[in-house]
Fold this sequence. Notes:
Blueprint: H1 21-34, H2 47-54, H3 58-70, E1 74-77, E2 81-84, H4 103-107, H5 111-118, H6 140-155, H7 159-162, H8 171-184, E3 194-197, H9 200-211, E4 217-222, H10 226-234, E5 238-245, E6 248-249, H11 251-257, E7 263-266, H12 280-293, E8 296-300, E9 325-330, E10 342-345, H13 348-359, H14 367-378, H15 381-404, E11 410-411, E12 420-425, H16 431-440, E13 446-447, E14 460-464, H17 470-483
Helix pairs in contact: 1-3, 2-3, 6-14, 8-14, 9-10, 9-13, 15-17
Amino acid sequence: MRPDLSETLLIALDRASGVPALRQVYLGIRQAVLEGRLPPGARLPASRALAARLGLARNTVVAAYDQLLAEGIIEGRVGAGSFVSRDLPKEPEPPPAPGLAAPAAAASLPPAARRFAAALPATGSTAAAACNTGRTSWDPRTAQLWRSLTLRHLQAPSLAMLGYADPRGSAGLREAIAAYLRAARAVRCAPEQIVVTAGAQQAIDLVLKVLVEPGDQAWVEDPCYPAVRAALGAARAALVPVPVDAQGLVVAEGVAAAPQARLAYVTPSSQYPLGVVLSMARRLELLGWARQAGAFVVEDDYDSEFRYAGRPLAALQGIDDAGRVIYIGTFSKVLFPGLRLGYAVLPPALVEPVLGARLLSDWHPPALVEGVVTDFIAEGHFAQHLRRMRQRYRAARDVLVAALQGIPGLAAEAPEQGMKLVARLAPGFRDTEVAAAAARRGVIARAVSPMYLAAPPLQGLMLGFTGHEPAALRRAAREIAACLVPGAAGRPAAAG
């Protein structure tokens, strides 16, 4: 026997919506039936009682019931009242949760949709976990300056800030970026070559949209940054893994495997994830190949500002005489990831195509953020912030390296540059198992071996040290050590 649900039926009326009350009552009951909140055979409130509860005339509710009766959603029983029709399915299927596709719909998606869905991370946010990479520090001095500069722009907003801005990025920001890159990274560029983007990943995506046709060959370092590997896969490029040694990308291997590739993606100042620097001989060899093949080189300079021994290394783009290098930079590492601001320095011939692709995606960068960052750079705060962060990150690096020293089965050295280090595991350990065990203990130790495509993989853990307090880094080292003891998930693998 069905319970009497007449007193529990909730219909929310929006009297300011302009939708007639009759239709709101009709839709409210209909939705409750279709979602299964009112199952087949359930009693509806008496029209007089529901009208009193909703503050409506009884005729309004009667008219709504008549519409539901005509559609077969409810049925009337003489002397008993109105009920949900028994002809409806016994257990109506609940609607899919918001954002989740029903299995049948997911199976019918085109290949492009499945490629993009596969790029999503398998887990939720791990931003707060110890040793997660890409975190930054936000010291009181920078915080105060940021508040002051933001207030300045809010108090006297420009027309660009309140409306549609320049798709390339503001002229002031592009001039500030160009001046900084020329002085700090030896990049040869004019403001007209710069397109400001929503982070480095969007810059890379725009370049791939412009340059890559399905089936085009693209060199990638082996191992490679997973997000770019996924972006190339989504662009339907044919990936050509090129091994990396102590001098960086082995260019000769790339030439042998795909001499007519369309582009090469490289991280020459600090190879991701291994941290090696592309030697000058290899840089010249790479540029020579690109010039001869008519290919482009995408230089991802993601964290070169943080060099702890000497000045930052000069960019590959600065020695390119043929306009083959596309330089990608970001403020996510030097300021904070939530800023979502990056840029591409493009050969002149690519500026208009990339700008067109940018217009089709999100039109222009956020003008308020651009104004704040422009002032932050132009007034000298950016350089001071970088100096403070280098000191802080160097200290954090030293804390983590010291904490990892002496852990059996693991070897870690202090990198000369960057925001992370790679701790190598002794033979027999599987980095994926150690990483999973560490995650259960609240530590993000990214396994290196899945970043390889074809080369024999290194068994190692990529550990971020920036943006973490010393106590958290020491605790992370203890948890990793616990994962490497006999009996833990990261114990040496059985032979074979």
